[in-house]
Structure to design on (250 residues):
């Protein structure tokens, strides 16, 4: 289901489950995990997921700040597969992140990545499906259909709009349908949202809601016009030229 935040209000349990932040070696974002959490609090966003590319860096610090500020932070990561498709894992144990030195399975097969995520008790999300910048970054309809049994949620509404085909595929097969901003700018956090249909008190409840299908995609009526700008490589280059910031902890 898709609905507007105008109808339900930001007081409802809403979350943005695909957010990027500044990290040491991937600087296409100009704000830290801490700043992302504080922004979420400012816009009254209850739930957010940190999903940086190929690393858990910043996740534990975001969890700490979230606890202090009353924002539920879901530990996540976005992984690039062997052929460039992106996969999101949500709901990793902070203790595992802290103590096991988890090695992200980048550039492996989709099946391998899905199994790795599930093996750690997390859920698999197909982000921005069927959008593919130069056909490099997303699972195709065929990829998703082939692996439906291993995918827990599909990002049917992303900054590239609604994927009608994926929305129907998810609906017909009982896969959770979510909306996410894929924010790379602070002001884009919360532009596209997921509504939770059950009470959410901790990040584990978010994972349970996804597994049970107690979620729905929501689109903000004030979606920023520039949210889908294709400035990836330019922003990475710009980030590399920024002044150094202190190294972030996991």
């Amino acid at each position: 289901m898709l609905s507007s935040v105008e109808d339900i209000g930001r007081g409802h349990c809403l979350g943005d489950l695909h957010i990027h932040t500044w990290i040491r070696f991937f600087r296409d974002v100009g704000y830290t995990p801490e700043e992302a959490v504080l922004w979420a609090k400012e816009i009254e966003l209850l739930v957010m997921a940190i999903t940086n590319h190929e690393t858990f860096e910043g996740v534990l610090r975001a969890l700490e700040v979230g606890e202090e500020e009353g924002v539920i932070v879901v530990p996540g990561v976005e992984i690039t597969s062997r052929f460039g498709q992106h996969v999101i894992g949500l709901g990793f144990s902070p203790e595992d992140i802290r103590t096991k030195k988890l090695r992200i399975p980048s550039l492996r097969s989709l099946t391998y990545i899905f199994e790795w995520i599930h093996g750690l008790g997390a859920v698999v999300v197909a982000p921005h499906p069927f959008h593919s910048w130069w056909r490099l970054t997303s699972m195709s309809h065929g990829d998703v259909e082939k692996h439906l049994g291993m995918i827990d949620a599909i990002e049917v509404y992303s900054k590239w709009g609604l994927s009608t085909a994926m929305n129907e595929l998810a609906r017909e097969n009982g896969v959770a349908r979510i909306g996410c901003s894929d924010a790379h700018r602070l002001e884009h956090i919360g532009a596209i949202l997921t509504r939770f249909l059950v009470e959410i008190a901790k990040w584990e409840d978010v994972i349970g809601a996804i597994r049970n299908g107690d979620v729905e995609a929501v689109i903000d009526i004030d979606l920023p016009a520039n949210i889908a700008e294709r400035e990836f490589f330019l922003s990475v280059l710009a980030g590399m030229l920024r002044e150094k910031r202190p190294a972030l902890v996991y």
Summary: Residues 59-69 form the longest helix (11 residues). The CA atoms of residues 27 and 243 lie 11 Å apart. Confidence is low (pLDDT under 50) at residues 230-250. Residues 2-240 form a domain with the TIM Barrel fold (CATH 3.20.20.140).
